[in-house]
Please model this.
Amino acid sequence: MSLFLVITFVVTLLAAVAAMSLRNLVHCALMLAIAFSGIAAAYLQLNAEFAGFTEILVYVGAIAILIVMAILLTRSGEAPEKSVLTSGWLAGVVVTVMVFTTLGWAVLNSTALPPPPVEAPQATVKNIGDMLMTRYILPLEIIALMLTAAMIGAVIIAFKEDGKSKSSQGNETPIQIGNQPEPLPAGSVESRKEGVA
Amino acid sequence: MFDKLDQIFVTLKHLVMGHLPAAWQPLASAVISIALIPIVFPGLFAIVTVIERKGLGRIQNRYGPNRVGPFGFLQFVADGIKALIKEDVVPRAADKMVHFLAPVMMLIPVLLAYAVLPFGRKMVVADYDAGLLFFFAVGGGVELSVFMAGWSSRNKYSLLGAMRAIAQMISYELPLILSAVTVVMMVGSLNLSEIVKHQNQYTFGIAHWFVFSPWGLAGFLLFLVASLAESNRTPFDLPEAESEIIAGYFTEYSGFKFALFFLGEYLGMFAISGLGITLFLGGWTAPFSFLTWIPSYVWFLSKLLGIVFVFIWIRGTLPRLRMDQLMNFAWKFMLPLALINIVVAGIWHYMGPDWPRWLVCSAILACAYGLLGLGLMHNQKLGKRIYRYAE
Amino acid sequence: MTPLQVCLLFSALLFATGFAGAVTRRHAILVLIGIELMLNAANVNLIAFWRFGPHPEALTGFIFVLFSMALAAAEAAVGLALVIAIFRHKKTSNLDEVKDLKG
Amino acid sequence: MLGEQIIKGMAITAKNFFGSYVSKERLTTVQYPEERLPQQGNTRQFPMLVFDGDPEKGLRCVACTICEKECPPQCIYIVKSKDKKPDYKGQPQLYPAIFDIDISVCMSCSICVEVCPFESIKMNTEFELSTDDRFGALLLHKNDLAKSNEYYQKLHPDDAKESDAALAVEKAKAEAKVKAAAEAKVAAEAKAKAAAVAAPAPATPTPTTTSSATPPPAVAK
Model:
């Protein structure tokens, strides 16, 4: 059990706890990015190279930025209100502790697995590709469909309605400043163009 | 004799490691190969800043800096000292910790990205099996640092600049990765040394570089334009345009932190053009078989300087794109062309090694380029300007 | 304490942190961050079992993690779109106030 | 076709870039401290005081302070002298004890040159006057400002000739006046002698008074 792996675990846990407990939301998001990189480092040390790089690409590169953008869009960048926890936070903590104790108990005294093969497994890109193309071809197609559906769904949900829907607050229609410039008489533009071209 | 010259750095490293006790050898080899990068590339950055200013000068019929040192080549020392001496102003409302970490967070991914680039025969720091994926994964970290810089300075302009920079980087990352996918399809592996070895064969004396095939040329041009946008260089340097938002996301940085951003941008440019060379221009291979006696790292460096010179040349020529033109160009021209390029690469692979595949592929690509270009020029009105005279 | 158990304990702890955050925090986006952490804890579990499990060459855990990452990305996108839509509608992202079902 | 104009633009910059190495006249930059552009005729920077011969006695300025009053930014400061010294026409004139120009204020408008009736202040073309002392060094005193007429001829040959012609005319008029006065005096003496001859008895005391009224001797230029 290499020392580096333990250090990575500790760093990731600290970053995760910080991500959950900081008041300023943007700091939470940055701590989350550090936690994701910690997890990616853990994957690299567990010889899951491809998973580690995908983790950095997907989580640190995309999801962290997505969360940060969402924070800015909902204008909660620096508004730490008085109490950060919900009203029923105590029940949450109790449930968490129960969840963790059951998991811990299950981990500690489950029947030991046969010892792993002596040399570390090699997840080379070639056999990941073969596996994806032969045995897991169906899940790959389904994931592709699901991703497209998710993208379209996200856009539709977040699309800004153009003010016709009778939402209770009723978003403001754009205020008219001065009279609209009347469009140029069509004739003059055409003649100008021939003159120039 | 040439092989010794070619492997001079590798032998030097083994020589140095020879003196150390066996226990220290792996660590020493890692440290030596890693230590080379922060020495060589910031040095290259220093020289390229001078070359850039002299090149831009020559393009505009003037000399460019020629006072400091012979022909002005010590100008970077003057700039460096100036950056060190300048007072480092931190805005009072800024978020101190994030404001301080942003330049560091900018340099980490860029320097990490150099680990997988093969600079010469057997001269690569970390020969990962999925090297290309590592490069793009780490490249994503730069956007986070741009956001940190823009948000932490608590300044509307830098936040706007950061948002524009992130939008631009994300929308140009797609064509970048898709144009690299065509090379991966052809070689069948993500390992960069494998990709270079695949381009290291010669027929009638000409190397098998991917850029000499139709899909390779289209991929290389797409990659070049996308890397221009990824490193915020001239036609796409809206986020830090002086005339628009003062200096974009590094408005509130001065002194050495500003120089760090500057260094980060240039190192990013070298890394991404290094990758372009490895994917399309045959990494460290010689273009013709009778030139293989020149050491491999010299080829890599000369190609890198060639691409840097093209970047400078483009910077001296093209005006800056507006934000909406920039976005339309990425989503309505570059992305479809990259997807078509992947299809064409597939056709190229399955049509067998005779001449009709050249014709078919280049025809498809040419008309795709023409149609998409017409579509873009038409609704973007990019064609000849139509003047409306005031009555 | 075999290495596998250390990894499992770590992923359990990570899961507990994510769960605690998702359950106790008031802000909608932080609930999503908690969910992301939980998903990642599950991935760590899968990789741990693949690495220390009996047949690593079958790559089952590994491929499972790749698919779960794709899923997590899609979930994050849709979740954040929901949060933004709620914010635009109710001008708040505080979960305690988003209680009434009427639009 | 998209990209057509881009290629044309790149070709032009390439031509410029390689042209600048080939043909030298493309590069028009003048390496300033080493090479200098010849100054045009009517260049003007800061005023100077012109003197003929000796900087102290030959100074043309008579401290009439017209330029001090006319100067828009009021950057000239003159203190008149107590005694007089003869000017080029021989008349005793005042001269400036102190004549300062603050060149950090002067805007080289050359109004002082236009209003000066004595052709004594002209515009110099000396511009490398930067110093690190912000106060005293930028206030030029009389001896810094005084420049010889030959220097002025060399600086602005054409209008230097005009000003010399005007001075020569002025001097000629002055000498003519002096000569006329001398002849008038001689004629007066002749008349006086004639009157004395005509009336010798009563006029004996008059010749002594006329001798004291003779004009002072003309100073040789």
